[in-house]
């Protein structure tokens, strides 16, 4: 599975969009990009995933660059409850396991 | 719909004791996983079961054994607990394909 690089921490003002970047320059053609988050002491929570096209669901949007070497998770209107560690993971769904890196610690501030 | 249920939620063991962590899912998922998370660290995969009747090692399998008892249940056993196994243990399940994993709420294990 390809490795990912994320900033260690980020801050965001409540009500503003939170844009979390992820680099995955060695991603292969059949690997998807997944995002999970972990609120303190809880189990990780699935957010969204994508292969090539941009994706949106009720939680977030995922923007993947055309060369697929990087992506951005967007939380359109961050709330205090979005404070968590966000993990970007690339994985071949038919072969690879979900391997977590260090993630980005997002702090949403009033 | 309970999702993924882990028992116990908390446990303290003495070095050398054994115990089994239980995990059950009610979503009819094919695959199940055990992870551990040390303080300030990301999750590391211990063992996984791609389907009923199969198990495979993950990143950190040493000191652990697993049993996929049936499609619903996947247990993790520590035969002789060591302080280095003090951690939070998460069980997860997923469909065979690429939809997201569902995680349990974790078992907090301390080995003294």
SSE blueprint:
The complex is a heterodimer of chains A (110) and B (112).
Chain A: E1 9-13, E2 18-23, E3 32-38, E4 45-50, E5 55-56, E6 61-64, E7 70-75, E8 84-91, E9 104-109
Parallel strand pairs in A: 1-9
Antiparallel strand pairs in A: 2-7, 3-4, 3-8, 5-6, 6-7, 8-9
Chain B: E1 4-7, E2 10-13, E3 19-25, E4 31-37, E5 43-49, E6 56-57, E7 64-68, E8 74-78, E9 87-94, E10 102-103, E11 107-111
Parallel strand pairs in B: 2-11
Antiparallel strand pairs in B: 1-3, 3-8, 4-5, 4-9, 5-6, 7-8, 9-10, 9-11
Q: What value does the average pLDDT of chain B take?
A: 92
The portion of residues assigned to helices of chain B is under 10%
User: Uncertain spans of chain B, ≥5 residues at pLDDT below 50?
Assistant: none
Classification by helices and strands of chain B: mainly beta
User: How do the strands line up in the largest sheet of chain A?
Assistant: 1-9-8-3-4
The major β-sheet of chain A equals:
5 strands, mixed
- Largest inter-chain contact set: A-B, 22 and 24 residues
Biggest sheet character of chain B: 7 strands, mixed
Round the Cα radius of gyration of chain B to an integer and report it: 13 Å
Mean pLDDT over the full residue set of chain A: 92
Ranges of chain A where pLDDT stays below 50 over 5 or more residues in a row are: none
The helical percent of chain A reads under 10%
> Cα-atom Rg of chain A, whole angstroms?
13 Å
Termini gap of chain A: 37 Å
Taken in chain order, the helices and strands of chain B follow as EEEEEEEEEEE
Number of helices of chain B: 0
Polypeptide structure, described:
The complex is a heterodimer of chains A (110) and B (112). Chain A has 110 residues and is an all-beta fold. The termini of chain A are far apart. Helix content of chain A is 0%, strand content 45%. Chain A has a five-stranded mixed beta sheet with strand order 1-9-8-3-4, with no helix packed on it. Chain B has 112 residues and is mainly β. Chain B is built from no helices and eleven strands. In chain B, strands 2, 4, 5, 6, 9, 10 and 11 form a seven-stranded mixed beta sheet that branches. In chain B, strands 1-3-8-7 form a four-stranded antiparallel beta sheet, with no helix packed on it. Chain B is globular and about 35 Å long. The termini of chain B are far apart. The mean pLDDT of chain B is 92.
């Amino acid at each position: 599975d390809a490795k990912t690089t994320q900033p260690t921490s980020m801050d965001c003002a409540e009500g503003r969009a939170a844009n979390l970047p992820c680099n995955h320059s060695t991603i292969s053609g059949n690997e998807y990009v997944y995002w999970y988050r972990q609120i303190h002491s809880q189990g990780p929570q699935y957010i969204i995933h994508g292969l090539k096209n941009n994706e949106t669901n009720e939680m977030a949007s995922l923007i993947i660059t055309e060369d697929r070497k990087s992506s951005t998770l967007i939380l359109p209107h961050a709330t205090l409850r979005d404070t968590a560690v966000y993990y970007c993971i690339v994985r071949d769904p038919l072969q690879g396991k979900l391997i977590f890196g260090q993630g980005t610690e997002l702090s949403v501030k009033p | 719909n309970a999702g993924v249920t882990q028992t116990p939620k908390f446990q303290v063991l003495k070095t050398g004791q054994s115990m089994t962590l239980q995990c059950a899912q009610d979503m009819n998922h094919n695959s199940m996983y055990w992870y551990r998370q040390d303080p300030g660290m990301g999750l590391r995969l211990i063992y996984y079961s791609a389907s009923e009747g199969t198990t495979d090692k993950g990143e950190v399998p040493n000191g652990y054994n697993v049993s996929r008892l049936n499609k619903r249940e996947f247990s993790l056993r520590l035969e002789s607990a060591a302080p280095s196994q003090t951690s939070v243990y998460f069980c997860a399940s997923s469909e065979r394909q690429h939809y997201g994993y569902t995680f349990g709420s974790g078992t907090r294990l301390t080995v003294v």
